[in-house]
Structure formats: C-alpha cells, structure tokens
Amino acid sequence: MKDNRPRCAAGLALLTALVLALLVWNISAGSVSIPLGEVLSALLKPSESGIIWGMRLPRLLAAAILGGALSVSGFLLQTFFANPIAGPFVLGISSGAKLTVALVMVTFLSRGIVISSMAMVAGAFAGSMISMGFVLLMSRRVRNMSMLVVCGIMIGNICSAITDFVITFSDDSNIVNLHNWSLGSFSGTSWENVRLMAWVVGAALVLTFLLSKPIGAYQMGEVYAQSMGVNIKRFRAELILLSSLLSACVTAFAGPISFVGIAVPHLVKGLFRTAKPIVIIPGCFLGGAAFCLFCDLIARTAFAPRDMSISSVTAVFGAPVVLYLMASRRGGKGARA
Amino acid sequence: MSEPRLRTERLSVGYHKKALISGIELELRRGRIMTLIGPNGAGKSTILKSLIRQLPLIGGAVYLGGEDMAALSERDVARKLSVLMTAHVRPELMTCFDVAATGRYPYTGRLGILTQEDRDKTARSLELVHAADLADRDFSRISDGQRQRVLLARALNQEPEVLVLDEPTSFLDIRHKLELLAILKDMVRSRNLAVVMSLHELDLAQKISDWVVCVRGDSIARQGPPEEIFTAEYIADLYGAARGSYNALYGSLELEAASGAPEVFVIGGGGAGIPVYRRLQRQGTPFAAGVLGENDLDYPVARALAVETVSEKPFRPIGEEALRRAANLMEGCARVLCPVEDFGEMNEGNRRLRELARGQGKLDESGL
Fold first, then answer.
1. What pLDDT, in 10s, does the model give residues B43-67?
2. For the CA atoms of chain A, what is the radius of gyration?
3. What does the pLDDT look like over B144-175, one tens digit per residue?
4. CA–CA dist A283, A156 (Å, integer)
5. Interface-testing mutation among B53, B74, B75, with chain A (most A C-beta atoms within 10 A)
C-alpha cells in the first residue's frame, strides 16, 4: 500500500512556506517599496501610523485570513453538492451576502449610525443563508451539476442587480465607498476588522476541522455516509452553516471575491493527490491565503498607486482552473449521490 | 433459540408518510441469506432503504439483534449493520484502499485517523474479496465488477452482523455475478453473517438464498424457502409474466411458445432437442415434440415451447399409446426433424418414428 502521508506533510510545509514568503513580499512591495531589512525592524516596533503597521499589515492579514476562509468554504460546498465547480461565488451566496451588507450599510449610514464590523458580518451571514436557501431549493429540483451552477449564477445576478439599485439610490457620499466595496477589495481594513475576522474565521475553521471525519464519509455519498454512522441531517446543517459563515465573513469585509473557492481546493487536491478532508482543510486554508496574498499583491502593485479590484485579479487566475474543471468532467455529468 | 439478527414487526414502508407496503414480518438469523424478489418497482429497494434507516418507517419497528433500531445511535447501528447499495459512488481521488478503509468509520476516533490495526483489517477485507491487487488503484478508474467487490470489502470492513445489499449483481457480467455471490456465500459461512438483499436474477436467487421473500407492490405476497417459492406457476403469477415461462428446476426462463397448429414435429431426447426447440421458437414456427420421457432433459423445455408434447412416464420404454399419438401429430406436420442419433432400449419407439417419417418423405435431415 502506498503511503500518501509524506506527500501531504511536504505539501503542507510547502504551502506554509509560500504563505510566509508572500507575507514578507507583500509587506515590502507596494507604491512605496520597503527594503527587506527595514521590514524586519519595522515589524518589531509596532506603530499604528506607519505604512507597515497602519496599512499593509492589516490589509495583508485580511487577504490571508479571508482567502483561506473562502477556499475552505468552497471545499465544503463542493463536498456538499458533490460538485467540483460549486463555490460561494458561482452559487450566488457571496452576492446574497453582498446585497444584505449593502442594505445594512445604506440604512445605517443614511441615519448617520456607524456600523460595527459585527453588524456587517451578521448582515452578510443572513444574506448568505437566504441565497443558500434558494440554492438548496433549486438543488432539489435540478440534479445536474451544471444546471445548479447556472441557477446559482442567476441568483447571484439578481442579488447584484438589486445591490446596484440600492447603491444608485443611496446618498452620494456613500456611493464611492459602497461601490468600491461591492467590487471586492482588501483595502481599508482596520485592525478591529482583522481581530474580528480572525476570531470568526478561526472558530469556523476549528469546527470545520473537527468535522473532517464525517466530511470524508460524505464524499462517499449520502447513503454510505449514513450507513457509516453519520447523522446526515445534523451534518448537512453544520456544513451549510459553516460554509455560509465563512463566505459571509469574507463578503462583509472584502466584498464578493470570485473563483478562489473553486480554484484553490482543486489545486490543493491536485498537489496532495488526495481529497481527504483532514489534510485538505488546512491545505485549502493555506492555499487560499497564499492565492489571495499573491492576487492582492498584483492588485496593489500592477497599476500602483491605483488599486485594482481583487476580483478581477482572482478571476484571471481562477477562471481558467474552473474552465479546465468543467471541460475535464465529461460534459459535466457529476455523480450526485 | 437465539434472538434473530434482524427482525421486523408489522413494518410499513413507503414515501412521504404514505405506506406502500404494510404488514412486513421478516426474521433473519445468523448465517442465513434472505433474498427479496419481485417485479421492478414492487418495493424491494423501499424495504431495504427502510431497514437501513435511509427512509423513515411509516409504521411498525425493526429490531437489530433484539434491540429496536429507532432507539439505537447512528454509531451503534453502523457497528452492526453495513450496506452495499445501488447508489453510484465516484469519489474524487480515492484509491480502492481508501474506499475500503471508510468501513472503519464507526471504529475510528474523533478525526477518523486510521490506526495500524484499521489498516491491517482493511488490507484483509480487500484480500477476502480478491481485490488486494487493486489497493492502490484509483477507485473511479476500475471496472464495475471490481468496484462492487471493493464496495463489498468496504462493507465487510465495517465488521457487521447484518449485511444489506441492494441488487449487488446489477451491471455485472456473468463471471462477476458468480464471483460476487460466491464471495458472499463464503462470508456468510465463515463469519456467520446475516445477509438480506434484493436480486433481479431469479436463477441466482433460487440458488443462493436460504429464504425468499416475494414483494409485490402493496404486500409481501409470500415468503419461504426457495423450494416453495420457485415453482413455475408462482413465479409467472408473481411477475405477471404472460409471455413466457419460468423453469423451476433449471431456474431458467423460456420465451413465449409460438401458437397455432404444429407445422414441424421434433423427435427429441437426451438434450438434443433443446437447441432445435429454441430455434423453431425464434423463427416463430409452431411445433410438436415427442416422444420424451418425463425425466428427459428435453422435456421441460419442450413443455414450455412446443404446442404439444407427447411424453412417456419416467424410466419406461416408449409405449404403443404414446407412439400412436406421436404418429397422429406427425400426420398433420409438413416436416419432421430428428436431432437424436443414439437409440437404445428406452427410445426404440423414436427410432421407429424416424423410419416412419422417412418412409413418408417428411424427414428433413438437412434442416438440422
């Protein structure tokens, strides 16, 4: 019997190294380039006003945490729907969160109330769950995986249309803010945001990791999972809640980000040559962190000092992976247990 | 007597709170194979899915080793009962070893990490189904027959007391069907498993089952040992099969006989007649057969396919009465076929029939 464990250990080590390298690179690169030597000394002296502590560090920590969260959320949705091209963005879950966050922002801002990050996350979570509800309803009727994705895209488009409508009719002063956010960006992340997202994503990740055993059983299909002793109803609810919470957290802080949720899990599975959740979940988190750090680096530096939207960058790198996946699955006849 | 491994009491099964089949009373003991037969859509799978709690029960109860299954936890059930269902499994990036290892699920810890013991047991389960060489192969890239064996290894790896299989032989060719059932039979004997399964193949069901349950739409039509169930009349009735017949002794199926006045007379015996009967049936030619001892190999097939069959009592030479009837039938036929070449004391009469036909110029020796 071949033992896959050394390969997985090496893969995890490689991804960790990649994340660390990208963190350092991200700190030093930007419209103001900081030499590596100064990076180290600046890191040792926290000051909220400097470029590193005030701007870059929270932003890149957000990119790492949220990128990881998005990938894990994608992995959970792919397992849930037994569909390799499921993800929070294509299923319209991110757009649902975007809509509710926009509504929350407009209502609060127009009354001059400052929104807490917590309210944003709660709003996004509600939106995610509503979209998820629609997707679940559709998934009962359409068994074909491509059709499910089409339905998700429809739901996403409806939500985006309403979001645009809301933005159009909101106060001028908020439009710029809202518009930037609705395109997706890690810029403007505060330390308070970082602390909250670290708590929420951290807790969700630990819970997800503890579910890796039933997730593995569920990969064999619902029938077998149940016969192995998985309480299917509870498990499905847990999976839905966790994946929605993870993607809601991303949307609340950075807006909708496309394709990370599909591309990263697929690449990680390819790297590890297994789909075992116990290694894929941490692998996805690290992979997603590295992917988003890399994409954010490009978003910040390609046309510096102007920021690109993070979604345009992730789409450039993520969409080809999705296209490859759709083409390689024999016309999209996914097995649905 | 010990408690049965699996027992149902006034069980009703169905979908959406509506009972399809009610009053199901089953009892399965260790070392026994119980097979559900019945027409498509009769509810065999519905019963099996209810037994394994995949469908909620509409009424009644299922007892697993004497305990009400409704009161058992998922894990308790999983340690006593495992399944091989028809659901298509195409897990991503899993080797056959990985698939078989999922059977250890109810025994592993919180994170499902396999111990050395789990790995050894998985390897042994694969050996049992002769799939040890498949261990490192990608599960989605093996044949249907291999896949069923690996899934059986998975089920055995769960170390169950009761094994539930839903049409385990569908989509398999004849060699793999026999192989799978042979392995199953071995397991039942060596591990004292109790097996309940549904089968489409009546011939196999008749041979492998200790107990047969006939499911028909709204009820269990009948249950009993295979000798009692597999009679030509009952099977035809169960399946509503008007266009053909079931041979209880051979466990084989024959198509509908051609109807009308016999045009050909076949002098058969000793198995030589069967291919001729089948060919005439295919061509749609009505024929008569004779003279066959009732213990002759050809006799059951002739009964199923010929318009009329002239027979003699078992172990007796062909008598004058039978010969007269055969000669009468031959009168009405345009052709006579005689695939028999050996004649002895018992079928001396048939030799005389052949000479008679030759004399009448009806014997078609090229038509064989």
1. 999 999 999 999 999 999 999 999 9
2. 20
3. 889 999 999 999 999 999 999 999 998 888 88
4. 28
5. B74
Q: Does B148 touch chain A (CB under 8 A)?
A: no
ipTM, two decimals, is: 0.84
CB B156 within 8 A of CB B103: yes
Amino acid in the structure at residue A131: S
pLDDT > 70: percent of chain A: 92
Which of B90, B110, B139, B165 to mutate: most A Cβ within 10 Å?
B90
Task: Please give the pLDDT value at position A335.
Answer: 39
What's the pLDDT at A27? 87
Nearest to A265 by CA among A93, A94, A75, A84: A75
State both tokens at B106.
Answer: 């109810």
Q: How confident is the model at residue A328 (pLDDT cuts 50, 70, 90)?
A: confident
Please tell me the least confidently modeled range out of A300-314, B263-277, B345-359. A300-314
Higher pLDDT residue, B336 or A106? Answer: B336
Per residue in B28-38, pLDDT tens? 999 999 999 98
Neighboring chain B residues of A210 at a CB cutoff of 8 Å: 110-111
Q: Find where tokens 């027992």 sit.
A: B7
Distance from CA of B107 to the nearest CA of A (A): 10
Test the A interface: residue of B50, B102, B164 with most A CBs within 10 Å: B102
The pLDDT value given to residue A244: 93
Closest CB to A337 among B53, B74, B87: B87
pLDDT at position B336: 93
- Cβ-defined contact of B92 to A210 (cutoff 8 Å): no
Looking at the complex, does the CB of residue B55 fall below 8 Å from at least one CB of chain A? Answer: no
> A91 φ, ψ to 5°?
-85, 0
Dist CA A207 CA A200 (whole Å): 11
Q: Is A206 on the interface with B (CB under 8 A)?
A: no
* Angle, alpha carbons A297-A303-A304 (nearest 5°): 75
User: How many C-beta atoms lie closer than 10 Å to residue A290's C-beta?
Assistant: 26
Pinpoint the alpha helices (H) of B170-272.
174-191, 202-208, 226-229, 232-239
* CB-CB neighbors (< 8 A) of B83 in chain A: 223-224, 227
Sort out which chain A residues have CB atoms less than 8 A from B113's CB and list them: 278
Other CB atoms closer than 10 Å to residue A172's CB: what's the count? 6
Identify whether B300 is preceded by a cis peptide bond (ω within 30 of 0): no
Q: Which residues of B touch A229 (CB under 8 A)?
A: 73-75, 77-79, 105-106
Cα–Cα distance for residue pair A247/A83, rounded to 1 Å: 18
State whether the Cα torsion A170-A176-A177-A179 is positive or negative. Answer: positive
Spell out a b/e string for A78-98, using b for 16 or more CB atoms within 10 Å of the CB, else e: bbbbbbbbbbbbbbbbbbbbb
Backbone angles phi, psi at B6, to 5 degrees: -140, 135
